[in-house]
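Running log. JK asked me to keep both predictions on one page so they can be read side by side. First protein, sequence followed by its tokens:
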Amino acid sequence: MRIALAQVRCALGDKEENLKRMQKALKKVDVDLYVFAETYLTGYMCRDLFYPLAERTDGKSVKKVAKMAKEKGCSIIFGMPVEDEEILGVLRNSAVCVSPDGEVQRYDKLFLANFGPFEEELYFGPGKGPVMFDVNGTKVGTVICFDIFFPEIAKSYALNGAETVVCISASPATSRPFFEALVPARAIENTIYTVYVNQVGTQLNQVYFGGSMAVGPRGETLVKNKYYEEDITVIETDPVQLEIARRFRPTVADTLTRVPIDTSAIENNRKN
């Protein structure tokens, strides 16, 4: 599967402009899957504007993306604020996957960043659990930004047959060392392709470093996008490479789905 890491600058709060930029990006390369950043549709630093900007997944913006996907014959993953269909007034920070046949799949961010400059819990509710996307028959697990700090999510995708984990992100420059360590770690510990696509540019007081990257199942860096500039790169995943990686380093096969904990020392201390 050919995947484009579409590191494209957002116009803060301007959905129409961001859709135009998406359409322009789609003309640059031919791939099976395009990946855009977290909250790409609106930009990340929208704050209270998330409420009027949010849409449901059957809204006009997603329909426009579906039209692009159909015309291009590709799938598109991008971030947006979503109005929950079941709970009135609740928003989700979501990754939406639109297929060329019009199918729409959605993953809601599980771990909302709410520390330092981040205020996500003011606007969003957490998701219910991991969601595996079907991209033209290939299983793709998705996480959003802070989610990648929790290895159990990527591990659950690997144990359920994912070939690729996609992380869409809005990581400022101060977070760069963490993500550049964690993206390879998730790939190595799960022998899986890991794709990271970050915001780029400045929004209010936040500077996003770009630096999108893809790492192969043996920890090899496949592409690294430019820092602080727009950039689109392409990788091609290969199931054979997954098989080879897992044969020589069987981290998935050897994973303990339930780790036993030896409590004998605690029990002995209680007795004494």
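And the second, directly underneath as requested:
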Amino acid sequence: MNHMKRRQFIKRVVQTAAAVSASTAFSAQRVLGANERVNVALIGCGGRGLAVAKLMRAVPGVDFVAVCDVYDPRAATAREWAGNHAKSFRDFRKVLELKEVDAVLIATPDHWHAIPTVLACQAEKDVYVEKPLGHNIREERTVVTTAKRSNRIVQVGTQQRSAPHYAEAARIVQSGAIGPVHFIRIWNFTNMFPNGIGRVADSEAPPDVDWDMYLGPAPKVPFNKNRFVNTYRWFWDYGGGMVTDFGIHRFDTMHQVTGAEAPVTVSATGRRYELNDGAETPDVVQVTHEYPNFVLSYEATNLNSLGTAARTPGQPYYGARGDFDHPHGEAFYGTNGTLMSNRLGFEILPELKAPSGPGAVGRSERPPGFRMERKAMSGEDATALHVKNFIECVRSRKQPVATVEMGHRASIVAHLGNIAYRTGRKIRWDASKEQIIGDADASKLLGRKARKPWDLI
């Protein structure tokens, strides 16, 4: 979308928000009571969507009154779960017309996160939307603007924000207990060798799929099974590979733990080395994000699942399948110790008191103890807490744990990594203006011209 059309769209958002301000207040009042019923619609009925919906319906006073998916079998499964009273649609816009719907849960493919969120906010619906917030940075900014102008609750599905052990990790790091932190590592390792997502030929779309609606704002291409359902993220038209899929949760956690908000430079390297499939995103990628006070190294591979960093006997590790692997995590390297975290908990590995390295002053033959005490805390996936927080905020109108702005900032880290990878150049980022400095070609990847009629944002 060019700048003029984008300004016109945002102007319409502002006008719409002003026009509905009174009715929004009535809508909010209707669900303010702690025990009032909240009617939710599920948009995107795949595995993740239905899993989150089940957790959301477990919150007292929540009901699902509509489901929507472009793939009929998934919509049918979701409607059977929701009950005969629930309505079913292929087009999410029909859902937004339902006056009885208070909120929507958006668990569509990534390229369909931003537009339904914007239109839902305009339709006076609150939104729980899975990460990333959008396909690109510019459409995400419009989501943020719309949510704020329309006074809607938008919770981003970065559920690690709701985990008590990550809150404690943030307290420890920001207190200075592990010492100054100037290097952070985040990693996501899987082993899809040798065939990756495989190769399939283009074909006619099955009759139970609305392929044109599925593509939506993305370029029109023939139906291909790999571009659909579980493997769409490995194509640039719909997602951003490992970086946006696995990375965003951990980028958000890194922001939470450190209090940082945005990098100033980003560079990346990698390629699709080995996997014999039809995917586009790299099977190995390393991204270096320079923040004002530390360096973040993000590492991802689809060729090995061992991961990195140490393991402690008895400590659980997210995604681990064997005795040695540590496939996903974050490590905050301080001068007193290293805090290593993942979705199942964290541990602090203390540094020895004696300095190390060539010519270290104060070095001794016998290590004289540690610079701090070891500490560990267990945890678990916090999606249930996250959706409970969302429903509480729908009722109270308080801001959720993972605000739309937080989700946008975490997504930016991932998008900039992919832009650096795709251009092969170091990106300099002006966070206040959300602009790439001095690189017109790279700046083109901040957004894209959406296919009509979805060229809205």
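Observation for JK regarding the second prediction: The longest strand covers residues 181-189.
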